[in-house]
Amino acid sequence: MRRTTIRLNDHLLVEAKKLAASTRRTLTAVIEDALRAALARHGEPGQKRRRTKLTTFKGKGLQPGVDLDDTAALLDRMEER
Q1: What's the rounded mean pLDDT across residues 62-76?
Q2: Domain-located, residue 36
Q3: Label partner for 75 (CA 20 to 30 A): which of 9, 17, 35, 69?
């Protein structure tokens, strides 16, 4: 088992501590159980994913000099218009 540091919303931490106390478990056990449940839901076989419709626009395609991996440059370029 490894030790790690995580940052939690204050309200979420208070609720997790209350749950730990009321169920006589450690805070670590409560967080581990919640994480296991979230991971199980995410990876359930046969789970259908909702399709997402993407809106497209007519245009000239990718413009010269635009790097799709450079988020900051993309935001700057979009704000120019």
Answers
A1: 84
A2: yes
A3: 9
- Does any domain span residue 48? no
| Distance in Å from the first CA to the final CA of the chain | 51
**pLDDT category of residue 34 using cuts at 50, 70 and 90:** very high
Residue 29 in any domain: the answer is yes
Measured in residues, the chain has a length of: 81
Measured between alpha carbons, how far is 76 from 63 in angstroms, rounded to an integer?
14
> What's residue 30's pLDDT?
95
Q: Which amino acid is at 10?
A: D
Number of separate domains in the chain: 1
Distance in angstroms (rounded) separating the CA atoms of residues 26 and 31: 9
Under 8 Å between Cβ of 49 and 41: no
Residue 18's domain comprises 10-42
